[in-house]
Write a structure and sequence with these properties.
30% of the residues lie in helices and 26% in strands. The protein is of the alpha/beta class. A five-stranded mixed β-sheet has the order 18-19-17-2-26. The protein has a four-stranded mixed β-sheet with strand order 5-6-4-16, with helices on one face. A four-stranded mixed β-sheet has the order 7-8-10-9. It has 13 helices and 26 strands. The longest helix has 13 residues. The radius of gyration is 21 Å and the shape is globular. The structure holds shikimate-3-phosphate. The site of shikimate-3-phosphate has 10 residues, from helix 5.
């Protein structure tokens, strides 16, 4: 993201009301696009994520010889099979760690050299987590101090048995994609279960995988077949609207056609566990991904401690959970979430600093924070750190504050949700 973009002003609101439909899920959009590239036939993806991150994935795929058409949010990709074309330039992943880490798994197995680079924020994010296991699979891959850019000399890969040390769906998916293109079998074990879109996407495109508890195996050399589908709304984007609904009494919000995959819906359990009233109206299954319509109304908002496996399951929702903590009765404690420091920004430091700007008391730990409840927030200038989830989390906190807030570098929301502010304004009542 560019570091200078206009700010956005948020005025306090009394409630949110109406219905929202979210842009397509970002995690699924990346995965379907990458597998469509490796498949035989033309894949059509409707409600593809309109964010800059997934646009970066499409741009990289185009540079690898893929013919991709896009009309609005409908994307068609003419698959090339497992072998892609050598790119004639560096592949620019922009701000997207998901693009870089997952594509590395595919590129490691190609018969050409490539280089993956990213923006300033991505250039600070750790890549050893994919470089090490891919090297064990026989990849020739390196990065200075394990930071981007990543240079890859494509080579033949072989399967491995690998225990992922820190829960990460990006790493798991990277290795599954590499395993698909490798000889033999690849087995991955994770410390706690993370989002399973990689597994479900592989199955959707016709691959057979074996799944056990926190374990997944894939046999190399399987061929994929194109699909035609629409992508459910992004539950991590929905989290901001759900959070707004629970902190503003009298709210009543419908969220339509949203992803309800159980490995992504921990935020719903947390909100209902704290006292919010959430109803699932209709649930359907498309290619193993559950989706449905939610109705949410505020109740008493108690508090919660999030730690262990639950922190990994809630990783993208923790910033907004912490941002609304002052509005809870008992406060929120987040532990075992050190990974937050390695996201698009140091999300622990940025959340704590912004809560303090709004007048809240909170305590920062290496792996999390404690934010006491029953605190009144005041309007403030929020520093987004060019991180989409920080900007959106504090836009929500600002709705319940006394006085106006300004989110700086607000255009960073375009990473996942370009129309976020317009949509938010369309459902708030003042
Ligand atoms: C993602 C996994 C998570 C998440 C990111 C998207 C994915 O990252 O934070 O926004 O699509 O697999 P990690 O796998 O690094 O935890």
């Amino acid at each position: 993201m560019s570091s200078f973009t206009p700010s956005f002003t948020i005025r306090p609101a009394v409630k949110v009301a109406g219905a929202v439909r979210l842009p397509g899920d970002k995690s699924i959009s990346h995965r379907y696009a990458m597998l469509a590239a490796l498949a035989t036939g033309v894949t059509t993806l409707r409600n593809f994520s309109p964010g800059a991150d997934c646009a970066a994935t499409l741009a990289c795929l185009r540079a690898l010889g893929l013919e991709i058409q896009q009309e609005g949010t409908t994307v068609t990709i003419a698959g090339r099979g497992p072998q892609l074309d050598p790119p004639n330039r560096e592949l620019d992943c922009g701000n997207s760690g998901t693009t870089m880490r997952m594509l590395a798994g595919i590129l490691a197995a190609q018969n050409f050299a490539s280089r993956l680079a990213g923006d300033e924020s991505l250039s600070r994010r750790p890549m050893a987590r994919v470089i090490e296991p891919l090297s064990w699979m026989g990849a020739h891959i390196s990065a200075p101090e394990n930071l981007p850019p990543i240079s890859i000399e494509g080579s033949a890969l072989h399967g491995i048995d690998y225990k992922i040390p820190i829960a990460s769906a990006q790493v798991k998916t990277c290795l599954l994609f590499a395993g698909l293109l490798a000889s033999g079998e690849t087995t991955i074990e994770e410390p706690s279960s993370t989002r399973d879109h990689g597994e479900l996407a592989l199955e959707a495109f016709g691959a057979r995988i074996e799944r056990g508890r926190n374990r997944v195996s894939i046999a190399g050399g399987q061929l994929l077949t194109a699909i035609d589908t629409d992508i459910p709304g992004d539950i991590s984007s929905a989290a901001f609207f759900l959070a707004a609904a629970v902190i503003l009494p009298q709210s009543s919000l419908i969220v339509e056609e949203v992803l309800l995959n159980p490995t992504r819906s921990a935020f719903l359990d947390v909100l209902s566990g704290m006292g919010a009233r959430i109803t699932m109206i209709q649930v359907e299954d498309h290619h193993g991904e559950l989706r449905g319509t939610l109705k949410i109304e505020p109740g008493r908002l108690l508090g919660i401690k999030v730690s262990g496996a639950r922190s990994a399951a809630l990783i993208d929702e923790l910033p907004v959970l912490a941002a609304i903590a002052p509005y809870t009765e008992e406060g929120i404690e987040i532990r075992d979430a050190r990974e937050l420091r390695f996201k698009e920004s140091d999300r622990i430091a940025e959340v704590v600093a912004n809560l303090r700007r709004m007048g809240a008391t909170c305590e920062e730990f290496d792996d999390g924070m404690v934010v006491p409840g029953r605190q009144k927030l005041k309007g403030a200038v929020i520093h987004s750190a060019d991180d989409h989830r920080i900007a959106m989390a504090f836009a929500v906190a600002a709705l319940g504050a006394a006085g106006e807030s300004t989110i700086d570098s607000a255009a960073c929301v375009g990473i996942s949700y370009p129309d976020f502010f317009t949509k938010l304004e369309s459902i708030v009542e003042r």
